[in-house]
Structures are given as structure tokens and as C-alpha cells.
Amino acid sequence: MKWSHFFTSAVGRKIVMALTGLFLISFLIVHVGLNSCIFNDLPYFDHNDNGSMFNRAAHFMGASLVIRIMEIGLLAGILLHIIQGYAVEVKNRSMRSKGYQVNLGSRGSTWMSRSMALLGTLVFLYLVIHVAQFWWPSRVSHDLEKVTYNGIEMHNLYLRMYEVFQHGWVVILYLVGVAALGFHLLHGFHSAFRSIGVHNKKYLFMLKSLGYGFSIVVCLLFALMPVSMYLNWVSPFN
Amino acid sequence: MEHYNMNLTLKVWRQPNKTSDGKFETYQVKNISSEMSFLEMFDVLNEQLVMEGRDPIAFDHDCREGICGMCSMFINGRPHGPWHATTTCQLHMRAFKDGDTIVVEPWRANGFPVIKDLVTDRTSFDRIIQAGGFISVNTGNAVDGNAIPIEKDHADASFAAAACIACGACVAACKNASASLFLSAKVAHLGLLPQGYPEKKNRVLSMVSQMDKEGFGSCTFTGACEAVCPKEISITNISRMHKDYLFAGLSSEK
Ligand code: FES
């Protein structure tokens, strides 16, 4: 079987979606872990941190060549997931030219499982804003304030976060984006494993539970970031 | 359960042939017994239409005992009507109340074009079977039980999958009009038994490629197919089919 055919059949396309999806999930783990460094500024941990832990972690991510190369892989993964996702959606939608008068609707399936393209689009729009606000200034245009720790100068990304999240509407936009990501993951996490062939009921139950837990914890942490900055639970000044 | 009679309003899709546009027509049926099957109710309606000199409604049916998979009707937004794990022919009128309006549509999928009224052309399923849903050699007469050892779990899973009657309800319900539940049932049914095992790889590759040609979508694991399947075929078969496809595709020499 030719590779081109292998990846473009009805099953192959879903295998691509699953593999890229799982790759992006692994990225989310790194991203949420690293960004959670901002919570080190909470009084419970180290109120004088003022973002130094986060800034240094972000600097490590930006300065190391290995990670910059992985970033290219990540970009490829995202693009593939988006392009293939739309291709699958368009193809699937075209398979029923004439619809029903009375639809099956929600009988037998969850809303998020039927709305992956919509949720994915919301996540994509959110991603564009997110990249423009953080990734672009720190990696491309370099127009961020500088800060020095132990004699090493780096971007004060933490300050940037704080400034961005002082606007209520940005916080709301982020919450909507994160919610869309959460619902996308609620279905996508276990569905990805099904698509690459996990059929053992024992594992499917485990993966579904893990997927729900993962989606909730990751999105809660992401949601807390803009909220805690907006409410000044963590801030660069104290 | 107590017997009762009912009067019903039926909205049925009428379409003279494959190429013409169809439309819904409304019919009244009176004194329908709660003990009748849904198809018998259609027989009553058709007799009424014949008496009036009108064209009776074309619908598929054969065994009328839930095993052939011909009776494809999309009833009130659900394939085979409201009852769980029941084909249209086994659906009884006690599922409805006096005065109900019932909307009856044909399967809607590009892989199942409408031929007339509620009858769709489902030969696409036959072609998918012809692509690989068989064992190439004659396996002979039934051998002594246990002459070929078969793991109990595999035998059970294979038998459960073999219950598929290829009615197409999975396609009708799927938002992507995917034939994955049907195809995966056939792949599991044959591939899990020793007679079908040797051709497992080619089977899945050929059947999937035929499914693509016939105009069915990909599976997105919404679970709608499993929920409406009259034979309760499990969606885990689809994951098994994806696994077989993955291994077969990766290990193929060509
Ligand atoms: S007529 Fe055979 S299954 Fe309904």
C-alpha cells in the first residue's frame, strides 16, 4: 500500500488526526507545566518571586536550540492537524448531500463529539490571538521589556502577561478559548486513542477517565492564569 | 399490554425515481392496531392507496423477522424507529399513541441513493463485501467442535460482530455517513476466527479502499451508530478495524 493512499483513506486521515492530536496534547503538558511557574508568585509559595521562575523557564525554552527545532515540529503538527481536520470535516459533510427532515440530533452522541470542527475553529482563532500576543513579540519582533537575573538578560514575558491580562475583555476571550480547548479535548483525547486502534475495553475506560481528568485540570490551570493576573493574585509588583 | 387502536398522521417521503425530486406527502391511517408491526401498518396504508387508485409507497422488506436487514426506514429522526435494538419490521405500533404524527424518510447518504420512495440502493455494501469480506478458499464441511482451538473471547467477539445484518442504520445515523461500523463488524467477524485470519491484512485494506470509492465518510467516534444499531454492534469494532488497518498498511510490502 502506497504511503499517499495509506494516509488519505477514510481511516488513514483519522490516524493522522489522532497522531497529530496526541502530539499536540504532549505539547500542552509542557506548556501548562511551564506557565504554571507564574503561580510561584502566590503568597503561599514565594511572594517575592515576581515572575522570575516563569521568566527563566521561558528564557530556557527560547534560548535552547533543541527546543527551537522542536518548535518547528510543533508548527508542522499544528498545521497538519488544522488542514487535515478541515479536509476530514469537508469530506464528511459532503457525504450526505440531502439531509433529514427530522434529525437524530443528540440521541446517542455528545455535543462535543459532533462539534469538533467548530471547537477546533474556536481554538484556532484563539491561538492566532495568543501567538500574536506572546509568541511573536518574544521570538520574532523582540519588543519586550528586559529583565536580568544572575547577570543574564532576558525578556520579561511575565510583565507582558500581566499587562495583557489587565483588560477584562482579553481575560474573557481567553476563558472562551480555553473552554473551547477543554471541550475539544474531552472528546479528542479518548477518540484519538480509538482512532489509532485501542479497542480493549479496560484501556478505553482508563483513557476516557484520564482524558476527562486531563482536560479539566489543564484547562483549569490555563484559565487560572489570566484570572489570577487580572485579580492581582500574582503580579510583577510587590 | 393492553390492546388499543389508533389513528395516525404519516408524513412519508415520496420520490418517483432516482433522478426526480421527491417531497413529503401526508396520509391519514385509521384504526391501526397496537399489535401490528410498523410494516403491517404500511401494508394497510398501501392497500388504502391502491383502492384509491394511487401509487403505493415503495419500501424494502424481506424476512420481517429482524434478520435480513432490508427494512430501512428513518422514523421520527431515528433509523428503525424509537425502540432500542429493533429493526423496523420488529417495531410494533404500541410504540406510538393515538393521534401521533410519524415522519418516515429513506436512509440519507450519498452511498445509498434513493431508488424510489423509501427504497435506497445499498449495493455499495455488497461491493464493500466483494472487495474482501470473505474467505477465499472453501473451508469445507463443519468440523468437530473444538477440533480447531479458538480463544473464547475471540469467538464471542466474532459472533457478536457477525450479528450485523448490513441494514445500513449506522450510515443513516452517522453525521459523516460513515460505513465504519458495518465494515468493522465484517472485519472483526472474519478476522478473529482462524479461517479468516490469514487474509486479515488484505481484507481490511481492500474493504477500506472500497468504502472510500463508495462515498462514505470517516469515523469520528460520536457513538451514534452504536446507539441505533438494531444488532447492538459495538463501536469498539471500529477501533479494532483501525488497528488492523494501521498494522496492515505499515507492514504491507507494496
Ligand atoms: S424485513 Fe428483514 S430485518 Fe426487517
UniProtKB/TrEMBL annotation, chain A:
<keyword id="KW-1133">Transmembrane helix</keyword>
<feature type="transmembrane region" description="Helical">
    <location>
        <begin position="65"/>
        <end position="88"/>
    </location>
</feature>
<dbReference type="InterPro" id="IPR034804">
    <property type="entry name" value="SQR/QFR_C/D"/>
</dbReference>
<feature type="transmembrane region" description="Helical">
    <location>
        <begin position="21"/>
        <end position="45"/>
    </location>
</feature>
<dbReference type="GO" id="GO:0016020">
    <property type="term" value="C:membrane"/>
</dbReference>
<feature type="transmembrane region" description="Helical">
    <location>
        <begin position="210"/>
        <end position="231"/>
    </location>
</feature>
<protein>
    <submittedName>
        <fullName>Succinate dehydrogenase / fumarate reductase cytochrome b subunit</fullName>
    </submittedName>
</protein>
<feature type="transmembrane region" description="Helical">
    <location>
        <begin position="168"/>
        <end position="189"/>
    </location>
</feature>
<keyword id="KW-0472">Membrane</keyword>
<feature type="transmembrane region" description="Helical">
    <location>
        <begin position="116"/>
        <end position="136"/>
    </location>
</feature>
<keyword id="KW-0812">Transmembrane</keyword>
<dbReference type="InterPro" id="IPR011138">
    <property type="entry name" value="Cytochrome_b-558"/>
</dbReference>
From TrEMBL, chain B:
<dbReference type="InterPro" id="IPR017896">
    <property type="entry name" value="4Fe4S_Fe-S-bd"/>
</dbReference>
<dbReference type="InterPro" id="IPR036010">
    <property type="entry name" value="2Fe-2S_ferredoxin-like_sf"/>
</dbReference>
<dbReference type="Pfam" id="PF13183">
    <property type="entry name" value="Fer4_8"/>
</dbReference>
<dbReference type="InterPro" id="IPR009051">
    <property type="entry name" value="Helical_ferredxn"/>
</dbReference>
<dbReference type="Pfam" id="PF13085">
    <property type="entry name" value="Fer2_3"/>
</dbReference>
<comment type="similarity">
    <text>Belongs to the succinate dehydrogenase/fumarate reductase iron-sulfur protein family.</text>
</comment>
<dbReference type="InterPro" id="IPR050573">
    <property type="entry name" value="SDH/FRD_Iron-Sulfur"/>
</dbReference>
<protein>
    <submittedName>
        <fullName>Succinate dehydrogenase / fumarate reductase iron-sulfur subunit</fullName>
    </submittedName>
</protein>
<feature type="domain" description="4Fe-4S ferredoxin-type">
    <location>
        <begin position="155"/>
        <end position="184"/>
    </location>
</feature>
<dbReference type="InterPro" id="IPR025192">
    <property type="entry name" value="Succ_DH/fum_Rdtase_N"/>
</dbReference>
<dbReference type="GO" id="GO:0009055">
    <property type="term" value="F:electron transfer activity"/>
</dbReference>
<dbReference type="GO" id="GO:0022904">
    <property type="term" value="P:respiratory electron transport chain"/>
</dbReference>
<dbReference type="InterPro" id="IPR006058">
    <property type="entry name" value="2Fe2S_fd_BS"/>
</dbReference>
<dbReference type="GO" id="GO:0051537">
    <property type="term" value="F:2 iron, 2 sulfur cluster binding"/>
</dbReference>
<dbReference type="InterPro" id="IPR012675">
    <property type="entry name" value="Beta-grasp_dom_sf"/>
</dbReference>
<dbReference type="GO" id="GO:0009060">
    <property type="term" value="P:aerobic respiration"/>
</dbReference>
